[in-house]
């Protein structure tokens, strides 16, 4: 009987060890990802500084900045969806500051609402630099006739509006934009599924253990 049970037992122990190790690895990844998210949140909330002359899309992503300038009349609407609100648009406009022309994400407006006119005169903007990674193979081509885009493709937006490929995502503006609500940079869009993966691997380990014990019981019953 012991000879017939040894290999199923070894196979079961090895399988459980592999599944448990995968679960432990995902828990380690979870701790790493939480550290990354905490670091990003700290960077987002840091005191704002002037917009760098040549910001780096990697090193300066999420950098808090403050700038004073004028919002251009042109704009591009980027289709998005807000939880508990529904579909709407991010409004991207040119922003002229200190002899530079940058992109400004002014915020969110519902699909049914008209885009408010740009504030007149000089405005002060507190924002974060961002280069969103939103374009995929499935992203539709912009509908230029309807002025609807489907992702914040910073280089393409810059070409369309004649600006530098630098996007400021507004947190606060000195002028009330009415129907426009700022959508500041945060970490909510960064996936962190490692806990669910860990639970899946640990659950499979328990199932594997149960199947192994059942198989051993069946072998024992046949030999009695």
Automatic annotation (TrEMBL):
This is SURF1-like protein. The keyword Cell wall biogenesis/degradation does not apply. The chain crosses the membrane at residues 6-25, 195-217. Belongs to the SURF1 family. It comes from the Bacteria. CDD domains: SURF1. The keyword Membrane applies. Pfam families: SURF1. It is a multi-pass membrane protein. One of its GO terms (cellular component) is plasma membrane. It comes from Rhodophyticola porphyridii. Keywords: Cell membrane, Membrane, Transmembrane, Transmembrane helix. It is found in: Cell membrane; Membrane. InterPro entries: Surf1/Shy1, Surf1/Surf4.
């Amino acid at each position: 009987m012991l000879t017939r049970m040894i290999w199923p037992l070894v196979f079961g122990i090895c399988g459980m060890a592999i599944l448990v190790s995968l679960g432990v690895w995902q828990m380690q990844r979870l701790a790493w990802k939480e550290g990354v998210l905490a670091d990003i949140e700290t960077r987002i909330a840091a005191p704002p500084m002037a917009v760098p002359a040549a910001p780096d899309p990697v090193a300066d992503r999420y950098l808090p900045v403050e700038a004073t300038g004028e919002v251009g009349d042109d704009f591009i609407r980027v289709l998005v969806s807000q939880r508990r609100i529904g579909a709407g648009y991010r409004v991207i406009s040119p922003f002229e500051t200190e002899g530079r022309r940058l992109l400004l994400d002014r915020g969110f407006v519902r699909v049914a609402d008209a885009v408010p006119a740009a504030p007149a005169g000089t405005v002060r903007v507190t924002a974060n630099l961002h280069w969103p990674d939103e374009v995929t193979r499935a992203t539709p081509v912009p509908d230029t006739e309807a002025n609807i885009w489907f992702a914040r493709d910073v280089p393409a937006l810059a070409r369309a509006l004649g600006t530098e490929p630098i996007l400021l995502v507004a947190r606060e503006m000195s002028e009330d934009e009415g129907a426009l609500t700022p959508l500041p940079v945060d970490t909510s869009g960064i996936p962190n599924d490692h806990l669910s993966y860990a639970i899946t691997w640990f659950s499979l380990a328990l199932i594997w253990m149960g199947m192994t014990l059942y198989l051993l019981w069946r072998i024992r019953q046949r030999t009695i």
